[in-house]
Give the backbone structure.
Amino acid sequence: MGRYLVISSDTHAGPNSPVYRDYLDPKYRAAFDEELAERQALIDKRRESAEASPFVGDDEFKEEWFGVDDEGNSLHEIGLRGGWDAVTRDTELDNDGVAAEVVFPGPDAATGTMGAPFGAGFIPVATRDDDHLLAGARAYNRWAAELCAASPGRRAGLIVAPIVGDLDGAVAEIRRAHAEGLTGGIIIPPRWGDHESYTSYRYDPVWATCEELSLPVHCHSGPAPQEEYGEVPGWMSVYGYETIFYTARPLWFMLLTGVFERYPRLKMAVTEAGCYWVSDLLWRADMMAMREHGMRKMVGTRGTLTMLPSEYFDRNIKIGASNTRRRELGRRYEIGVDNIMWGNDFPHPEGTWPYTREFLKSRFWDIPVDETARILGLNHVDFYGFDVDLLQPIADRVGPTPEDLGQDDAVSVPKWAPFKEAGRPWLTGLEAGASLTDT
Amino acid sequence: MGRYLVISSDTHAGPNSPVYRDYLDPKYRAAFDEELAERQALIDKRRESAEASPFVGDDEFKEEWFGVDDEGNSLHEIGLRGGWDAVTRDTELDNDGVAAEVVFPGPDAATGTMGAPFGAGFIPVATRDDDHLLAGARAYNRWAAELCAASPGRRAGLIVAPIVGDLDGAVAEIRRAHAEGLTGGIIIPPRWGDHESYTSYRYDPVWATCEELSLPVHCHSGPAPQEEYGEVPGWMSVYGYETIFYTARPLWFMLLTGVFERYPRLKMAVTEAGCYWVSDLLWRADMMAMREHGMRKMVGTRGTLTMLPSEYFDRNIKIGASNTRRRELGRRYEIGVDNIMWGNDFPHPEGTWPYTREFLKSRFWDIPVDETARILGLNHVDFYGFDVDLLQPIADRVGPTPEDLGQDDAVSVPKWAPFKEAGRPWLTGLEAGASLTDT
């Protein structure tokens, strides 16, 4: 084993907002100019009142992220330019040990000045109407296709696809953007508002198109029903806890109502919502499908599924788990070692950039090498169709080694053997440590 | 160690619907007669069309639950009478090894003929308006006070308290019903509809009253936003998975926004929603409060909390975990051994009655005796103020022994020692088995 091929399942890119003007269909430019002016007024107002959005950090945080070091150099200024500049971006990926990336919109760490038009971000939500949102998506997609073309093979660019509104328009945009070079998949809104939810067969044309073009469907954090939280101290923690649920929600809506039965080659990923919840989802879903005692009286839990939910999961779904926690890695045999895709969330401050090497060491030091290789990159290769022949030379130059991560298979492999054997205890009937079966 | 004092944190009681007429304030009786007629028409229609509610079971299930044995005897008919008859009820508890119980409304296993008036069940949701719902709650509460008086000390009866509508009326009813003998706590609607959520200080008079009277606040399963699921095959599994989240949701709304900081002696329980999710809730909530890396940029996650969320949990909250799964017991040191209260869900078919002894053996065979004693009954004593001197003689007559459960501390205690020591790994920094810290 040489150097790991590390791929980030979760990065963000996009230009400063005014740049989008040139990528918008002309009829939407006047409206975009208005939106830009409104947004700038909001930013100015916040700056004047010293009342920043709670999502952009307090003074201590901003000092860390935007401040200067002892010698007066900006801490992250150059690196943050990688949000839109392809050459800088590749340098930052190199420095972080990352050979390739899956690119979402929204590079803006904490300033609010880089949003795509009309809400076409990594959580697409219309700021005007469905028509404008789709126009914004086209603008982002055109820009992203250029960024990806600048470093062939190193980026899987995602297509913003606001499917809950103008579905036919979104499907047409998926085909257009795919033809233009965005081959990484599509991003759908995790919440459907007043539209039909993702159990509805209305969305079948989207699933059929994505299956045909081999485009994984993505939901990215962090939506949540903030309107329910009220403006009381601590609401931010309610948001932080619930956004995981609301980001991942389309997954079980689709999984349990047979979308992957109808579209057996459709792929799906949930990104930057952790993966700790996956083991319990699969346990509960499998047990319901098998009509466990607590759900015996319920009719129709199995629906149209011919396999167990965990079997569809293994076949169709992966998790863009970003900065994997040790707590999550401890559950990897239940989640599925092949289903977890690490990511650095470049250039967001909640990710691991520019300290990925240190993070990887603190998280993976006792994980077997073959499993680390899958979680850090090989799973992404299979899912997104990256070209290993093209990427391995980059990895051989920048990737971390097992030694860098403090790994020793002579210790790690025996340590985990009972858990690997137990796998999913509710299916194997084997117990290991505190991971018990369900009987 | 003799016989376990077993208390069920989750049982259901109530008469056949027409009986409620006598317990209703006279001005609501005509409306109740109408509701009864409508309900009966629905039941008749379902019976004719052979299209039962998906919540009442298929033919195979109904044969199991309502059928006859080889000798022509009704399988559960006599026992089900315990839903409303105090003498039968005590006999069934005895047979199940249960010394005492925490009583919710809704004994109806699967027929739809025993609902309390105007939606005043264990998930209070108005079928007419807030005024009628409160009248229905008074009717149930009066009936329940009589049932509890029939077996002094053996039942903690809960007060149906629809606080989201007529708050002042609900507070008055809490005081009235408490004075009448319902001392087990209150049941609130887990969903708030168009009303303010439980982060709102609007509900402070409820919390203050419950703190004053030492009445734990309860949410009982299974609400869910069914209107979002659509009528597609498999929606029942979406419901089954999500009802856990939506039942428990008030807990983190209250916990994270400081209700237990403002009301340090207020108690709360979430009932029949399992407890598997508690360990991850506490982990996430604690990590956010400590501003872990992934939430560093967010402002105000700690809110007004002066302690960690898990510390409030240990002080103020317990889980009515009903039929505890082994998977859940495996996490008991993270959840807190003192925070789990087993229950048999009598007389619902998804519970353990009338097979509690077998269920307990299959779940607890390797759990240390002192921990079993707490989860099966001692935790309930502390939380609800049961009188052990009164109950122990019943337990000595009917309770199971450690031998009955196949337990041997010489094996169990060493088996779990590393996990007990690790406790909550995110706080202790200790790891055991696959339970890892968060660094």
User: Anything to note?
Assistant: Chain A touches chain B through 82 residues (CB under 8 Å). Chain A is about 45% helix and 10% strand.
